[in-house]
């Protein structure tokens, strides 16, 4: 089974997301990836991953990913949030994180938890090979 992973990063966390995706590139390349617009654009251009890009976060991208998740199409969310910068679409961000909690979907909102989640999924994928 291909893991279906959503990747999202706020602007000040995008460099962290690129470094994370580069580190896990071999594994992520085996997954079905979805991302918000700008994050997805950078993952494609700078890491070389295949990504289904949704709208940018402030234009509804978090909501699009939340909708997929509610429909059972997302197994895990890596959402590198910036807790220091107010976001115009804060309600959308909260809606996505809430949907993860409602549907018991893993949601890593910082780098440390993202590493834990990705290394575990990577290990599971390797064990199934
Ligand atoms: O704002 C975001 C998540 O809330 C991310 O959107 P972008 O990837 O388009 O910057």
From TrEMBL:
Positions annotated as active site in the UniProt record: 62
Residues binding substrate, per UniProt: 10, 14, 36-39, 56-57, 89
Enzyme Commission (EC) number: 4.2.3.3
Gene3D superfamilies referenced in this protein's UniProt entry, alphabetically: Methylglyoxal synthase-like domain
Signal peptide positions (record): none
Reaction catalysis annotation: dihydroxyacetone phosphate = methylglyoxal + phosphate
GO molecular function per UniProt: methylglyoxal synthase activity
Any Pfam family: MGS
SUPFAM superfamilies reported in the protein's UniProt record: Methylglyoxal synthase-like
HAMAP family reported for this sequence: Methylglyoxal_synth
Function as written in the Swiss-Prot or TrEMBL entry: Catalyzes the formation of methylglyoxal from dihydroxyacetone phosphate.
Entry's family note: Belongs to the methylglyoxal synthase family.
Protein's name in the database: Methylglyoxal synthase
Record organism: Duganella alba
């Amino acid at each position: 089974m291909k893991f279906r992973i959503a990747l999202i990063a706020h602007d000040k966390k995008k460099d962290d997301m690129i470094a994370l995706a580069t580190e896990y590139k071999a594994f992520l390349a085996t997954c079905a990836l979805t991302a918000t617009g700008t994050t997805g654009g950078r993952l494609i251009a700078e890491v070389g991953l295949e990504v289904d890009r949704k709208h940018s976060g402030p234009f509804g991208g978090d909501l699009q990913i939340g909708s997929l998740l509610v429909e059972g199409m997302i197994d895990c969310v890596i959402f590198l949030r910036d807790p220091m910068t107010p976001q115009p679409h804060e309600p959308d961000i909260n809606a996505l994180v809430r949907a993860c909690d409602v549907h018991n979907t893993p949601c890593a909102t910082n780098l440390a938890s993202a590493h834990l989640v990705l290394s575990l999924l990577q290990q599971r994928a390797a064990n199934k090979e």
